[in-house]
Design a protein that fits this description.
The chain has no helices and 58 strands. It is mainly beta and about 675 residues long. About 0% of the residues lie in helices and about 45% in strands. Strands 17-18-19-20-23-24 form a six-stranded antiparallel sheet, with no helix packed on it. It has a five-stranded antiparallel sheet with strand order 3-4-29-28-27, with no helix packed on it. Strands 33, 34, 35, 36 and 37 form a five-stranded antiparallel sheet that branches. The N terminus is likely disordered. Strand 40 and strand 41 form a beta hairpin.
């Protein structure tokens, strides 16, 4: 062991070598990010992506630094490292980003820090590291958390880094107790190793990530402290095994980490020119073998952070722990979304040329609905009943009991069934729209509201009381995945044009959650304040409109950057949102003002206000677009409004507490849920 000092310009901290039991220091920085979300857009490309860095709503039970982090299925495994007291440990933590939990994941056979990790044959694996001396041991944990020894590196080394491409893991940099290692290695099993080319600049503590067939080795130190930090960016060509120096960074950088997200390499923190850094950069890769390499600042971390662990899961980078200079227990995420100009046009994108309501015009009734009677289904949440109204006679023609607290009547994805969401009855009552009559209840916990993924493969239950969004099989109703929501009142949502993301409102807490529909994970959130309720996409999909009952208007948000880009004052208690049949206007119900505001999609301004009295809540637009049907939540009535004149046509008495009525059928190829969100 040889003690090594890392020196920061803002302070001098004595540190031992990688195999000692002390840790490196990162100097404080005056630049910090907001606790919840920091969003910064790079400016070096024509349409730079939007990079969002957020502090997760959950954290580690202890501090962690110089550990290995490995993506394992839908979880992350944190292996070894330092704990809060800077003791080297063997413990493994299992992180579930969906459930937002951290659990004991077992232990490695031996305590180790300054290690690097990879998933080898389905097991989180740690390569080398130190604890009093350098080790070459390759350790893993099995599914039961049992530690096993896999193999041994050709030469012991700590302070190393790894990158995985396909089934090959590449090991670069490090320290063997006497010298900094130049050799690079490749393995598929953690037992046998192939020696590849030597780094032109041997380093320890580099940031490493892979793109394509190349492994990028970014910065590092030749001495083990900040004084030996280098600017070099080196590239290992894994196809040939050759290594070259590709260029230089604008500053000397060590003890940073790197991850590849959506094809770009992002570098986190570290010690830059002797200062602890809270910066996140995008690596500007050279366009030619000898081209220049740069770093573009894209976001900031909540605190200066060095010696953290990072891994990518479902296109989100997770930065775990680190030193600042004390040991951190935080989890920070980085998500990348395309700039608006790069989201494309047509069915899969948003912006000019896109019209998500193109198939919901008057007369576009699905052929499968031929002969289905035009009826209006009204759930009475206090009476625990459904009233069925004939629009031709404006009268109730049927009435039957359902489960406790029915909230909404939701058309199924294929339009063959209507589901009454019995919130406190923990059930769905299916209705056959051909007969208008109910069938046996289906047990489903806490179905306040119901949506369907745009491909129809999953139902999405908005379990408001349980603060969960549950993805279920729409045929068997078996649970696929339950997504915990950290804010109260999750109940309404809408989707991006390509169906990849869902924006869900949390009515009682003022938050919006962005959920990746494919991975079924939360990827961002935004506090708009007030009481966000109904959510509807603009026709071109570039923004989402959110009825904000507490702010008496409509929040306009960018669902990709999760920022509020506008606010439209409407009336007191804005609650429901419904596009007009021609897709040019949005009807916003003002439950406490007794009015309906008509918003022009093109100008995002209120162009008319219809004062109808009562308490207009949720509803639907008739198939021909001439009538707007709305429940009177506190008046036990349903209102019918002429959309041409804005005049009240009828007030039909129903049960107590009428809520999310469904006008059926309506134009559209399929239903995304709620009371008639069609595409």
């Amino acid at each position: 062991m040889h003690p090594v000092a890392r020196t920061s310009i803002l302070g001098v901290v004595a540190l031992l070598s990688a195999c000692s039991s002390s840790s490196s220091a990162a100097s404080p920085s005056t630049s910090t990010a907001p606790h919840r979300t920091a969003t910064t857009t790079a400016t070096t490309t024509a349409h730079p992506p939007i990079v969002t860095v957020s502090t997760a709503a959950f954290s580690l039970p202890r501090g962690s630094a110089r550990a290995a982090l490995v993506a394992d299925g839908d979880h992350l495994a944190l292996l070894g490292g330092f704990d809060s007291a800077k003791r080297t440990i063997a413990g493994v933590l299992r992180i579930d980003p969906v459930a937002r939990t951290v659990a004991d994941g077992g232990a490695l056979p031996a305590a180790v820090h300054d290690t690097a990790g990879a998933l080898i044959h389905g097991r989180p694996t740690a390569f080398g590291g130190g604890n009093g001396s350098e080790t070459g041991t390759v350790q893993a944990v099995d599914a039961g958390g049992r530690g096993v020894t896999v193999g041994t590196l050709p030469i012991p080394r700590s302070d190393l880094a790894t990158a995985t491409i396909g089934d090959r893991t590449f090991i670069v940099g490090g320290y063997d107790g006497a010298s900094v290692r130049a050799s690079t290695l490749a393995t598929t099993d953690g037992t046998t190793f192939q020696t590849l080319g030597d780094l032109p600049v041997p380093v320890r503590y580099p940031a490493v990530a892979a793109v394509g067939s190349e492994v990028y080795v970014i910065g590092g130190t030749t001495t083990g402290n900040a004084d030996g930090a280098v600017r070099a960016v080196q590239i290992l060509d894994t196809a040939t095994g050759a290594v070259r120096r590709a260029g230089d960074l604008p500053m000397a950088l060590t003890d940073a980490v790197a991850a590849t997200v959506r094809g770009e390499i992002y570098v986190f923190g570290g010690i830059a020119d002797g200062h602890g850094s809270n910066q996140v950069w995008r690596l500007d890769r050279p366009s030619t073998p000898t081209g220049a390499t740069g770093l573009t600042p894209v976001a900031t971390l909540p605190a200066p952070t060095s010696d953290a662990a990072v891994a990518v899961l479902h296109d989100t980078a997770y930065l775990v722990g680190g030193e600042s200079p004390s040991i951190l227990n935080t989890i920070v995420t980085l998500a990348v979304t395309p700039a608006a100009a790069d989201r494309g046009s047509g069915p899969g994108g948003s912006g000019p040329g896109v019209d998500i309501y193109a198939h919901t015009r008057a007369g576009m009734i699905a052929p499968s609905l031929a002969g289905v009677p035009n009826l209006v289904y009204v759930p009475n949440s206090i009476s625990n009943t459904v009233d069925v109204i004939d629009p031709a006679t404006l009268s109730v023609i049927d009435h039957y009991p359902v489960g406790a607290t029915p909230q909404h009547v939701v058309p199924s994805y294929d339009l063959s069934t209507l589901y009454v969401n019995n919130n406190r009855g923990n059930s769905l009552t299916p209705i056959d729209p051909k007969t208008g009559r109910p069938g046996p209840a289906i047990p489903v916990p806490d179905p306040y509201n119901l949506y369907f993924t745009p491909d129809g493969t999953r139902a999405i239950v908005m379990a408001e009381r349980n603060s969960r969004v549950e993805f279920r099989d729409p045929k068997t109703w078996a649970l696929v995945r339950s997504v915990p929501i950290p804010h109260s009142g999750v109940n309404h949502a809408d989707f991006s044009p390509d169906g990849s993301i869902m924006i869900a409102s949390c009515e009682f807490s003022g938050w919006l959650e962005r959920i990746n529909v494919d991975t079924m994970t939360v990827t961002g959130e935004l506090n708009v304040g007030g009481m966000p309720v109904d959510v509807r996409s603009s026709p071109d999909g570039s923004v989402m409109y959110v009825a904000n009952q507490g702010r008496n208007g409509v929040s306009v948000i960018d669902p990709y950057s999760m920022t509020e880009v506008g606010f439209i004052p409407t009336g007191k208690g804005t609650h429901g949102l419904y596009p007009s049949r021609d897709g040019t206007q949005l009807y916003a119900t003002n439950r406490l003002a007794g009015s309906i505001s008509v918003i022009d999609f093109a100008t995002r301004k209120v162009v008319a206000t219809w004062d109808i009295g009562g308490s207009p809540d949720m509803g639907g637009v008739s198939a021909d677009g001439t009538r707007f049907w709305i429940t009177g939540r506190y008046t036990g009535a349903v209102y019918v409004v002429d959309t041409t004149t804005g005049k009240l046509v009828a007030r039909i008495p129903v049960g107590s507490g009428p809520h999310g009525l469904a006008v059926f059928p309506q134009p559209g190829r399929f239903s995304l849920g709620h009371t008639g969100n069609y595409r």
